[in-house]
């Protein structure tokens, strides 16, 4: 029986991992393409390049009244634009007759201003989201919420200063 050399084993293992990674990435791309065809997926809104276009494509209008019910928490200064923590809460009873159905998060001048969209049902119990978003530069972040009755309300825009290495930017 032939002995397998350590270097030969490591080389073969590395090749197998690389092949699996390439195959896996192809599967992910195929899944992403399928997601683009899901009914109700707002592909046009997520592809929009300006805030006004993203809002028009997702909400149908750009002028949404600010409401104290929509609470947006984001840092004033974010040292890493690749991972900015954001918390969204919308004051709603979340009953069968009165609940938040959709929440959109926008970053005004990002390459794609619609950062995320969340859909809720009364079973959620609360319209609350914590996430991390990418921001290309210092910019305004804003939230729009829609009730099951079609009422739209927004948070006041919140400026988040994205620094480079914690030195300002």
Which CATH class of the largest domain is shown?
Mainly Beta
CATH topology of the largest domain: Immunoglobulin-like
- The overall number of domains is 2
Number of helices: 3
Low-confidence stretches: 18-37
The oligomeric state of the chains shown is single chain
Structural class of the helix and strand makeup? Answer: alpha+beta
Q: What is the H/E string?
A: HHHEEEEEEEEE
The CATH architecture term of the largest domain is Sandwich
How many DSSP E strands? 9
CATH homology superfamily name of the largest domain: SoxY domain
Average predicted local confidence, pLDDT: 83
Distance between the termini: 63 Å
Helical content stands at 25-40%
Largest sheet: 6 strands, mixed
Description:
There is one protein chain. The protein has 169 residues and is an alpha+beta fold. The chain has two domains: 1-41; 43-162, Immunoglobulin-like (Sandwich). It has helices at 6-35, 43-47, 51-58; strands at residues 70-73, 77-78, 84-90, 100-107, 114-119, 127-133, 139-147, 152-154, 158-162. The protein starts with 5 loop residues before the first helix and ends in a 7-residue tail after the last strand. The model is unreliable at 18-37 (pLDDT under 50).
Describe the structure concisely.
The protein folds into two domains: 1-41; 43-162, Immunoglobulin-like (Sandwich). Helix content is 25%, strand content 30%.
């Amino acid at each position: 029986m032939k002995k397998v050399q350590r270097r030969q084993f490591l080389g073969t293992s590395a090749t197998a991992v690389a092949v699996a990674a390439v195959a896996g990435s192809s599967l992910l791309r195929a899944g992403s393409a399928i997601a683009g065809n899901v009914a109700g997926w707002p592909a046009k809104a997520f592809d929009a390049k300006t805030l006004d276009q993203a809002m028009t494509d997702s909400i149908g209008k750009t002028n949404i009244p600010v409401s104290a019910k929509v609470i947006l928490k984001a840092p004033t200064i974010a040292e890493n634009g690749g991972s900015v923590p954001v918390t969204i809460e919308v004051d709603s009873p979340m009953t069968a007759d009165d609940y938040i159905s959709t929440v959109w998060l926008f970053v005004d001048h990002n390459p794609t201003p619609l950062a995320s969209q969340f859909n809720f049902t009364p079973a959620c119990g609360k319209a609350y989201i914590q996430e991390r978003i990418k921001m290309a530069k210092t910019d305004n972040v804003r939230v729009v919420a829609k009730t099951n009755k079609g009422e739209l309300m927004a948070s006041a825009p919140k400026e988040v200063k994205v620094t480079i290495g914690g030195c300002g930017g």
